[in-house]
Protein 1
Amino acid sequence: MAATLLSVMVIAAFALGGGGMWLIARRRETKKGLLMLVAALVMLGNVLVWTI
């Protein structure tokens, strides 16, 4: 169960990162794009901590 949760978190982090970069690249909503990138980094950091 834990491995599945970690996998879903990594997939969600990549989706957030991609969406954030897309928003920044299109210059639509830069602030929301940056927040999405920060959320993706936090999620990846949590996965890193949980796997150590």
Protein 2
Amino acid sequence: MTKQTKVTWRTAALSGAAGIAALVALTGCAGTTAAEAGPSPTSTVNQTLPAEATATSPSSATAAPTSAGGGGPSTGGGTLRSSACTATQLQGSVTAASGGGAAGHQGYDLVFRNTGTSPCTLQGWPGVSFVGKGNGTQLGAAATLDRSSEYGTVTIADGSIAHATLVVAQPQNYGDCGATTADGFRVYPPGSKQSLFIDAGQLQLSACTSASVQQLEVQAVQPGS
């Protein structure tokens, strides 16, 4: 082989190696550029999930019915339920009960009229005691409760009445019990801490002032008069 031939072969070999290296570098750059330009799967999922979750979120789906129904059935149910009658919305009176009472006893009906603008309810036994001396002083012991009487809830429409029967023993049954004329009754509606005064009117009510004498017994509230 001549000296000229060797130089030519080396030149060609170097040119071929340089071309291969350039081709490899070019291919590597192209791959890197393609990877950087294309969207990654992770990036795509992170971008689309929030949008889908917003559209189909269970909390979002239930929020609308809850908000829409907030003032519906619960408000309606509250308007249908009657509240307990208070002393301020009741007007009291007393009348002699038909049939009177057992020997030595007299029956009276304590009448409650609903003077409010909506129905109210009474259930159970009122608290009752004689009062007198012109200033509301309690006379004698408060009434005992006749537990044998029915005590269902009584609804009183506005302008309507209910009653509780009170049995009063005659003072003569107890000898000297310090009897005096009563002005009327202090009455606590069932469950109430406020009372109303029921004037005796034309009735002549004689009350024992001795606290040891149990002169009064009251029955549970009943509808009507």
Protein 3
Amino acid sequence: MAIARDTDAKRVKPLEGAIVRRFTAGAAVAAGQVVAMQSDGFVDPANTTAAAQQVAGIAIQAVAAGERADVVVFGPIVCLTGATPGATLHASNTAGEPAESAGTNAGIVGFVESATVAFVRPVSA
């Protein structure tokens, strides 16, 4: 089974020890999506196609553009399916989606703890 974002928002949740920050979304964000800080100060679903992304973390809930989004910026969060424990977790070329291999440009989210848990530890782009 290949890694994917868990699309059931009810299962996406931070675990004990996670640090959560609140950001304003510059675009619609889904629960479990990898988000990146943009030059306008908002977070959008990370997309490594055009340029390296400054990954902020993983969104806990879905929000519309202009709404405040709770984001795990460090620590464990249940948000994956089919992941490989120990793998590096990257932002992918598909906006907001996690990957176990690098996209076109840099965007490291952290690492995989289990098939369903990511440990968020962003690396600067």
